[in-house]
Amino acid sequence: MTRNEDLFARAQKTIPGGVNSPVRAFRSVGGTPRFFTKGEGACVWDADGKRYLDYVGSWGPLILGHADPDVVAAVQRTAANGLSFGAPTEAEIELAELLVKLVPSMDMVRLVSSGTEATMSAIRLARGFTGRDKIVKFEGCYHGHADSLLVKAGSGALTFGNPSSEGVPANLARDTLVLDYNAPHELARVFHEQGRDIACIIVEPVAGNMNLIAPRRDFLDAMRKLCDQYGSVLIFDEVMTGFRVGLGSAQGLYGITPDLSTFGKVVGGGMPLGAFGGRREIMEKVAPLGPVYQAGTLSGNPLSVAAGLATLEKVQARGFYEALSGRTQSLIDGLLDAAKRQGIVFSAQSVGGMFGVYFAANPPVTYAEVMASDKAAFNRFFHAMLEKGVYLAPSAFEAGFVSAAHTDADIAATVAAAESVFAEMKRA
Ligand code: KE4
After folding, report:
1. What pLDDT does residue 237 have?
2. What's the CATH fold of domain 69-315?
3. 3-67+318-427: what fold?
4. What pLDDT is stored for residue 38 in this prediction?
5. Radius of gyration of the chain (CA)
6. Which residues form the pocket of ligand 1, taking CB atoms under 6 Å from any ligand atom?
7. What's the whole-model pTM score?
8. 164, 171, 335, 402: which sits with the fewest CB atoms below 10 Å from its CB?
């Protein structure tokens, strides 16, 4: 019994599935999840002392890599002065001012403790602002585990094939319209039929929870146009894409101005922090200013804010995203060349510092195409790469992430490992 297996057996006695978030349990890929003991730069070490090149990065937050010295120092310095006050601090103003500066579509922002809290609050705010109940989301997109959003969700919910969760009241699910991603005509038809009842669209501007799907230009344009036409709120869920695909996030990359945006992951630098924000006339509806209630004991927590400020300080360095995007693309190019040399049906793509790999001839453009990709092949690839010391997301329905700590040598080693795995798969 390895130490990982021992810990997993023990964990399952007191924690449902042995994990505190379902996708960590390896149920989609099989086998034993790795219990990590240490992370440094691009690497993590598991309980058996094995080192991995990490392409999950805590599911996106660790854009600087593990235990970035500046981020850790900021947290340590802050902790020495107290962990939490439940009262305002100056650092929260600094982070709010920085977010508003870096995200021009936001006049105001509220800090929370997770991406789920950010999207849950944004939905409630859109409903309060419009006085409408219906919301539009897209199949395979995941926006956290708030009731209204766990309807045909992605990520863990998709990974286990139960996209709609038990426990969500039918009358609530009824107000969630689930449409196809990258299907502008269907979106237009639904708005023409029900637009006056629709409070908002919430969308991952680059989908990352059904593996990576890049948005069609006409899909994003249709959303903006229809929300303007019918008075609905356009919410860009940038929890994953925020400061991941570029300094301007996805809204900057594609030049679309949403009415509300949600953030998480990178903005907390690995500590619990999320945010939602947008146009002043909408944000002024938020308590205590307005009638839409939203609150949190640890909202704007000093340690999370310190980690977020230290992280966002470093990503503004000249050339940061050019280097990150370039390194991520070189990973993709290397994997594509290796699969071609070994004759494996494989495709891949990247957007900024996030990427998708698919055992399919071409990158999927729709949820149906994702579901048609060879999941069994991915699972074989996942475990073979794990054996070779490369830690990919333990699901065919997740995106991967490169950090600023990944070097060209790390990318080359990853490609070499993949090529030997492709060769093994060819022989099998
Ligand atoms: P959290 O509540 O997990 O901080 O954020 C929810 C969320 C909201 N929106 C998007 C676009 C997201 O990707 C997420 C969370 N992503 C998943 C993985 N793709 C988190 C990993 C997990 O659930 O353990």
Report:
1. 99
2. Aspartate Aminotransferase; domain 2 (3.40.640)
3. Aspartate Aminotransferase, domain 1 (3.90.1150)
4. 98
5. 21
6. 21, 23, 59, 114-116, 119, 142-144, 155-156, 204, 208-209, 237, 239-240, 264, 398
7. 0.98
8. 171
